[in-house]
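From the shared-data thread, chain only:
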Amino acid sequence: MGVIDLINQHLPRAIELRHRLHQIPEIRYEEFQTCATIRAELDRLGIKYVDGVEGAPTATIAWLGDPAKGCIALRADIDALPICEATGLPYASTNPGRMHACGHDGHSANLLGVTAMLKSLEPKLPVCVKLIWQPAEEGGAGAAKLVEAGVLDGRIGPRVEAIFGLHGWPGLKVGLVSTKPGSLLAATDNFTIQFRGRGTHAAYPHLGRDPIAAMASAIVNLQQTVSRDVDPTDPAVVTVGIVSAGTAINVIPTTPNFPAPPAASIARCEKNLRESMHRRCAGIAAAHDCELNFLWEEGYPPTTNDPAMADYVARIARQTLGDKNFVPTSRPSMGGEDFSYYLEQIRGCFFFVGVEPADVNGYPSLHSDQYDFTDAALKVAMRMFGEIVMNWGSGR
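Structure, as tokens:
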């Protein structure tokens, strides 16, 4: 039985598993129901696995095939987000305040479907395949934990020579695949800025020093770090996602603060962003006679595809889906991905699979309370992972 026939055989089960996973979303490092579902499916398939590693107990790692032929890895992330789902789907989240708004239910179910398919083909596999269900992609750097534990270097299963991952992408129609060599996704760092003023009654602002006014000025001014302090040819974005200040309408507080995630797709931008933001906030603090506490936390590095592996994925997409169904990514996306930690260690490629239905114009974005990984995209995702494995060694 060939890859296409096996996909058709295992696709209904993969869809069922996706719906089940969608109903039980769990945030980073709390994916206990999720990993139990994944492991139960591996048990059903008769596949042995590693159930957790140090620092990541919800990780699940298995492998198929002969390690003497070399080993490549396929990775899926499993965690969800702290979002209240508003899709109204019959299989919507049953965990209040938790949602698979980034499609990791689709990624996980896809890898389970591919695993079932590869299990049927195990004697014919041209390479050993390591299967990684990774926790805590959403801000928890689960990939870094797995790298540290030895998922790539041979301490956990065979040594891996190349790794592949995918993401459902709302900007692409179902049936399309996209990637590019080099930088594909941004570096994502976090900052917290706190202005410390002097609290007073709201009716007498002259008796205090208003940190909210300083904060408001900073939120607007920080947008100029991209337009005036970064090379226009370097993609960068600064976003303020959380603002907190005050406890009463008639009180000027002493210390508001705002944490948020900035991003730069090229590593050389990060130092410029940090220095520019600190300089601007220091000037605003001085103008408002406030003290400044500026904290910067380095996050995920840029997701940088190995050129040869990106070309391999593009070739697989063209020869299996057709030339018109591979769309080269024109420029890096400003989202981040901890798949980058794997790519810092070994060669590999991260790519996008379209999830926007053909009959829909526009689709909810990632991290939207309306987002859902489209079932029809699973067939394409399974085909890509399956063909990447079965063609390994043929002109890569």
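The CA atoms of residues 222 and 277 lie 6 Å apart.
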